[in-house]
Amino acid sequence: MSIESRRATSPTARVFQERPHTVGFVSLGCAKALVDSERILTQLRAEGYEVTSTYAESDIVVVNTCGFINDAVEESLDAIADAVEQHDKVIVTGCLGARAEHIRDCFPDLLAVTGPHATQAVLDAVHEELPPRHDPFLSLLPPGGIKLTPRHYAYLKISEGCNHGCRFCIIPQLRGPLVSRPIDEVMDEAENLVRAGVRELLVVSQDTSAYGADIKYRPRFHRGSPLKTNLYDLAHGLGSLGVWVRLHYVYPYPHVDRIIPLMRDGYVLPYLDIPFQHASPKILKLMRRPANTQGNLDRISAWRDVCPDITIRSTFIAGFPGETEADFAELLQFLEEAELDRVGCFAYSPVSGATANELPDAVPDAVRDERRDRLLAVQADISERKLQRKIGNTVKVIIDEVDRGQGIGRSEGDAPDVDGRVFVENAQGAVPGDILEVVVVTADQYDLHAVAQPVKH
Ligand code: SF4
Q: Which residue(s) pair with 422 in the sheet?
């Protein structure tokens, strides 16, 4: 019997002769969509599929779309059009996939269209076209699964959907009401990520403060200890894993006050990402959001009393329908008083299907843009002022990359992609994920420049 024919009759050899199926993956959208992509890819890899970055090498293509604002819809439709032009087996998933009829009208030849967080539906569609080939070697996965972020940080999604009804947003229509993951499941995933080398966990959801409300904060057991499915127990539990923990999309509900001492005591990073969106009570009411601006200022001040180093990040919308110059001035006044550390601002952009589109008194496009620019200019001065105060301080920095001895990283007050960076001289020998102590030398509007402290032996 020749080697070739022996191979053909051996079940093990047959496995090696079959090329694994390859999946091309296009991932668009926010951190929550990224987590969905990671889940799908992790499962596909576990089943023996290979992931590739070119259409030519793909047996099938999955496009994970975003449908949050019109620009994102356009980008998603372009990505689908590109995939369909280059490949005949395309599956669409994600937020835009919730509008399946519209997508099917535009692209009738798609293999399948699923909505967001539909991992199993995407897997089913892939299986139907390309049944999995069992390969025990390919099934060996790193315990943290497949991640699309650099190895040293990872997004941890704790819930799906949202129970609010902000008029500019269609997330509740796309992703449904709040569904929290049981706390033991989240803790297991976090522990796996840490075992896989993750040094920073970024907690994401649509509304992190509401975590557990839908399941009445159900108690679960994790490693023999009871934990309630709520934000406090989650922050405390994650904070015990010995890595940085950063909380995103936290609304200022009263129980958030209990989290601030955990920041002071080093369990979670002293960082809160709170999307205030506006400060004029009139505009907040039109947006259908809580309108307690003075209460928010008082809370921020009380949080700083407990944890003076806290960094507060927020986002705002300029030019919402009905916003007058006086309303906008209230927003600028809030910024001056609150002295937030990091601020993003969008000119209002109508989203198809949002009830804000029915409101009268639309602000002209040019005025929206001009107000956004004005807000960002005000904030740039505040940010620079605050960063200047850090000169001479020793701060901790997590290194994201090293280039010829210069480290580029982030302080405890900087989330990846959205906040500032710290450029660290004298970082020879550091690798991504290292946490260094550095002394701040200079600061500009958004970034810090620092020198690494010698490592103490
Ligand atoms: S809180 Fe408001 S903006 Fe955020 S996802 Fe829910 S409805 Fe949308």
A: 409, 448
